[in-house]
């Protein structure tokens, strides 16, 4: 075959291949989304920046950094900033100031007032005074990344990770919350890759497996953090000017938590209380009603929101939330999570119009591309059509990012609200049983029973999670017996300062390491 004809033939083949690829790009896209007319694209993991990178950013770059680290439940999670230990005190102050200034400009408008700088603030404070290697600093870091740089770093101590999560589990119970599952169930999920993670679904928000694994490992600490967000909400919505707005309870709980895991050095450090105060102050300041409406209006608003659920037990909100019953506090928490669901739904609705406009533009681009690709016989024309198709897809992904994020937030928040509501039904059903038991026991016996239920001396066996799980028997996915997904009272945990560190073993995680 003559060289010129060979070149022409190869050019036509390349052009045909590009044209086919161009059509395939659209076909794959539309085939994937035809059934629901909704598109879901895997979000690329946010790049990990060092402290030096953040200091070198201008304001617009900092804004984009915050937007890429937005949380589905509001605010921004910037705890993955690396090498903060290398900053001087003046540089740390400058970084904190610049991030605060950039927050209002970020497009996560519904949460710009509630930027979550908890982990960063605690890390910056812990760094002061040469505490770079403190256990607290390691715990406040985000879950291990999957980047090359992250894989080259020394992994956190699994015993320390376990103690922190177990202590969070214990603190959650002591402070009136309800863990999403017994700690043995979480151990089973971690030990068995094929196990269903449905028991902890209300506290998962990532679809990709890498991020989901990080979420599974921190279920209890994240649930505890959310519970304290709610406690802060309680005080903010009561407009209580006197007192410390709940900080003393937060401080006492944190001090007890770190003492329980044997971290006496951190508790006795002069910066401990200051760090805890910053953490408390940085929690979202959100109100159900406007600032000019006081507690009686808030109480009625909560009752209206919960009325459709038709609970039989009364809701008795108190000016001082510490005087409420566990039942009333849990219903108030249900109101809190339901309010967040309504907020996410409103954000998704606001973005829906832009989503449909972007969809129409993509349809139009496809029609134009279909008419021209079929006629393309040369390499340049095919390449141009392919570029047009890819640009249309990229534009659609970019233009609908906020809507898809908001829609995902609604989905995950619905799961959480359903779980909180289910727990409320369980609590409501438990009351008649408790009353019947009380009638059959003497007052002293009842008091002793209550004391046992709330005791800090319940000890969880110091065996590996996987061994405790296997005692339940059954198949590969068998889990210990539970009542409506709640931990049994006998499984409540208490860790003595010195014995816990010696006794806890994580055989499964070490094998994986």
TrEMBL record:
It comes from the Eukaryota. Residues 434-444, 483-506 have a biased composition (Polar residues). Residues 445-457 have a biased composition (Basic and acidic residues). Residues 127-160, 429-513 are annotated as: Disordered. This is Uncharacterized protein. It comes from Zopfia rhizophila CBS 207.26.
